[in-house]
Amino acid sequence: MDQLLRDTFARHENLVPIAPPGLHAAILTGARRRRARRRWAWTGLFTGVIVAVALLAVPVAARPDGTRPQAATSSAPIHLLLVGIDRAGDEPPAQVRADSLVLVHIDPGARAAYAIVVPPDFPLDLPGLGPQRADGAYLVGGYKPAAEAISRLAGVRLDGGAVVDLAAMESITDAAGGLDLCVERRVQSRHLAYDDNGNLGEPGPGRAPVVYEPGCHHFDSREAVDYLRIAAGSGDQRAVRAYLAALAAAASDPARLPALLTAAGQGLELHLGAGALGSLTGLAHALRAVDPQRVTAIRLPTGVPPGDGLYAALQTGRVGEWLAAHPQYEV
């Protein structure tokens, strides 16, 4: 049978249309752009979740005398590494690849932040192992080896960082009581379906896939996170931002805040040192110093010379000047 199929395809091979060079190039360019949109959507999602969770801590971080810690007044740049993972099932965090690695450079004097996204296939030099894919650096040993490799690459000391597990977003959304979200276009889920009794579960024979119809609806935690994953995977950054905005609105309810903090702690792994950033509150104050309109995503230069001057700019605190001279790297 296999030989028959091969012979059949061989006889009809000349009937297969050949794409013109221009069309072929356009197809490849479109595919690259779609992958880039998905990568930036995941980046925005994980970065936004970390910021939102950190800000949740500020209202309940008062000292016994009723005052709150003040933000650090130093104008020195702050460097954080944000790692986004998405566990499936019960895998330990250190046994999954990183969906997103983002080096964040905060310029307190300019109230600006720059999120430098490390491509998943970028080679990071790990001690004893040599070059490894960036998304596999976390798989090798968790946050620490990935952070050490990023620190050596950029030539800067990391002030801290965090690992966000997207799988924990379901418990956070549940603590928020679900979310009100507006759907712009019809989307069919690949992860959730209804059985004959209308119970929500995994897809299977005889089960009807969940369909998110256009319009505004109240999503329970499973539906909201499922829709979030679909949006991030398709590069729909507007839907990702809408989810984060709805989560922030839910967090403004003092009655829900304790439950949200407890749920957030299950999906946020902090790696912060001593000093002003030695706590979730310190991280929150560092992030609050940034003007939300002055957060810029940067594509890590991967050509020659290495970094195209970005590493030197990180070391001297002149990323804004560097970006003005290299606008092609802004996303």
Automatic annotation (TrEMBL):
Membrane spanning stretches: 40-62
InterPro entries on file: LytR/CpsA/Psr_CW_biosynth, LytR_CpsA_psr
A Pfam family assignment: LytR_cpsA_psr
Residue intervals of the Cell envelope-related transcriptional attenuator domain: 97-235
Sorted UniProt keywords: Membrane, Transmembrane, Transmembrane helix
Keyword Transmembrane helix: yes
Protein family: Belongs to the LytR/CpsA/Psr (LCP) family.
Stated name of the protein: Cell envelope-related transcriptional attenuator domain-containing protein
Taxonomic source organism: Dactylosporangium darangshiense
Lineage, opening ranks: Bacteria, Bacillati, Actinomycetota, Actinomycetes, Micromonosporales
